[in-house]
Specification:
The complex is a heterodimer of chains A (362) and B (182). By secondary structure, chain A is of the alpha+beta class. Chain A is 13% helix and 30% strand. In chain B, helix 1 runs antiparallel to helix 2, helix 1 packs across helix 7 and helix 7 crosses helix 9. The radius of gyration of chain B is 18 Å and the shape is globular. Classes of the chains: A alpha+beta (362), B mainly alpha (182).
């Protein structure tokens, strides 16, 4: 490994070590799922209602398709002449959805007293103890109260120097100082950097190890937090108490209402270009603008996967209760195995819908 | 939310989640330089994988698909929000400066690199993929990926003050490329 490479790897390792959060699988399995079967029903309905027209269009299309080339290959098409032509524009990343403005959290409740508070070590804390831990303070009282300031955190064990946490700032995205309702919690991060100017290697050889810290707060009360195995090459610091900022509510993606329906030819040959159509239907009573011009993902079980931008040069919106037909192209690799293949198409966005269809590879 | 008929898919997604989420979190964090942003990115990416799991699970490399989605989401947010300075301003703990500077400098330097170089570096030097795996994932020639990696590292070296990209580095990189190609 070269010197440059090892320095680069080390820089990435150090940077990533500060990712002080974790995810659980339940947090990502809460979103509603789209199932293959649901999409297929729509395709079948569309395909059957269009079956006669499609057969006629395919026959005409095949008759007219001679000489069309894509990437030097032959084409297989199921198109009409009214479709918006395909363009070879690379996809662009989707714009993130807007967020619903958040109101400031309420403040002004009386200060919390020691009898109202219960402090524990927070779960979902930084991934390693060397980076610190969260304190979770719960309001076990009967009314809302407000906890200001920061905890006093001291590591003190026999025969070892006493280490006190210094005052660290509160990053705004952590949260804000606010009222804590009964049963609610406030947090504070006790931050124990492993790497600093004093020891840029991040080593802690020879430094005493501490197994607990004493946490106390200005309104009275203290608690020993144990189960630690930390040293303090760079000291430690603590944020003020804060109420975690709730996750923002995202505004719905306007593209999510559009329903793609695929019209595919019945067969395609390996090494050719599959030409098909996507009917983009807007079932709502509001027009859906196409600015910025959205991109789409087309992929198949062959497998193939392509991302392009829609042709927005002439069509700038999908009208309410209307639809627009787009011509699509997909290069089929020469190595594609014969058999039925599923083709999937979706606009690239947040919670956009997927259209599906089948084609026989011969 | 999750119904009883999906237990096999839940299990397979859970296994996938456990295998990929640590490196995905690192990737999101290095790309965004912001805890909240990174958490949102990783969660959004994995939510998409779960939503389309019956399709994604049949891909030859679901992890590559997931990393690509994360990258696209991150790039989108970079362009939309530009550099978010709030973390830099708000997270400087007293008496503790170097760790944040390290991280923020890397994120800044990474954003100044061309997209292909940055992406190759993240996949190779952070995620730990081999050059050939990066090449497959970025649909590029392995030789091109080596060039991207080399230029990207030179860019990081210049931005992070590892010393001027001197002749020693250049010779080292050339011999590195030659030895891998032979």
């Amino acid at each position: 490994m070269s010197d440059l490479e090892s320095r680069s790897r080390e820089a990435f390792r150090r940077a990533a070590a500060y990712a002080a959060f974790d995810l659980t699988v339940s947090e990502v399995m809460t979103a509603p799922r789209r199932r293959r079967g649901q999409g297929r029903v729509k395709v079948v309905v569309v395909c059957s209602s269009l079956a006669i027209a499609t057969i006629a269009v395919v026959l005409v299309g095949v008759a007219l398709s001679g000489g069309r080339s894509h990437l030097g290959g032959r084409t297989t098409k199921a198109v009409s002449s009214t479709a918006v032509p395909w363009v070879n524009d690379p996809a662009s990343p989707p714009s993130p959805p807007g967020t619903v403005p958040q109101k400031p959290l309420p403040t002004g409740a009386p200060p919390c007293t020691a009898s109202e508070l219960s402090v524990t070590r927070g779960m979902g804390s930084p991934p390693t103890q060397d980076n610190g831990f969260f304190l979770r303070v719960r309001n076990i009282g009967r009314s809302a109260c407000m906890l200001r300031g920061r905890p006093r955190v001291v590591a003190s064990e026999p025969g070892k120097p006493t280490v006190s946490a210094s005052a660290g700032d509160l990053p705004s995205f952590f949260g804000e100082v606010a009222n804590t309702p009964p049963g609610g919690t406030v947090m504070a991060l006790v931050y124990i950097p492993a790497i600093c100017q004093a020891d840029p290697t991040g080593g802690n050889q020879g430094l005493p190890i501490y197994h607990s810290v004493m946490v106390s707060y200005a309104t009275g009360g203290s608690k020993r937090i144990g189960g630690l195995h930390v040293s303090f090459p760079c000291g430690m610091a603590t944020t003020p108490f804060y109420t975690p900022r709730p996750q923002p509510d995202y505004l719905p993606d306007p593209l999510a209402v559009l329903v793609p329906h695929l019209r595919l030819p019945s067969t395609v040959m390996p090494g050719t270009t599959l030409i098909y159509q996507v009917d983009l239907e807007n079932p709502t009573s509001r027009r859906v603008g196409l600015s910025p011009c959205p991109s789409y993902l087309e992929h198949s079980s062959i497998p193939t996967k392509f991302e392009y931008r829609l042709n927005c040069s002439k069509v700038h919106a999908i009208p309410a209760h209307g639809h627009v037909t787009y011509e699509m192209e997909m290069a089929i690799p020469a190595t594609a195995q014969p058999g039925e293949a599923e083709v999937l198409w979706s606009l690239i966005g947040f919670s956009t819908r997927t259209g599906r269809g089948q084609v026989q590879v011969r | 939310m999750i119904d009883g008929g999906d237990s096999d898919e839940e299990r397979s997604f859970t296994l996938f989640f456990e295998s990929i989420h640590p490196s995905l979190i690192s990737q999101a964090y290095v790309l965004s330089g912001d805890q909240q942003e990174a958490r949102d990115l990783a969660q959004e990416t994995l939510s998409r994988a779960w939503q389309k799991w019956d399709t994604v699970s049949r891909y030859e490399n679901p992890a590559a698909w997931t990393r690509a989605v994360l990258h696209n989401l991150a790039i989108g947010r970079w362009r939309r929000f530009q550099v978010r300075r709030r973390y830099e301003r708000g997270n400087s703990l007293q008496e503790v400066e170097a760790p944040d500077a390290d991280r923020i400098d890397l994120v800044r330097a990474l954003r100044r690199l061309p997209a292909n170089q940055a992406r190759a570096l993240v996949l190779h030097d952070l995620v730990g993929l081999s050059t050939s795996e990066v090449a497959v994932e970025l649909r590029a020639d392995p030789g091109t990926v080596r060039v991207w990696l080399h230029r990207g590292r030179l860019g990081l070296a210049a931005a992070l003050g590892w010393g001027e990209p001197d002749d020693r580095h250049k010779k080292e990189a050339k011999s590195d490329v030659r030895s891998r190609e032979s």
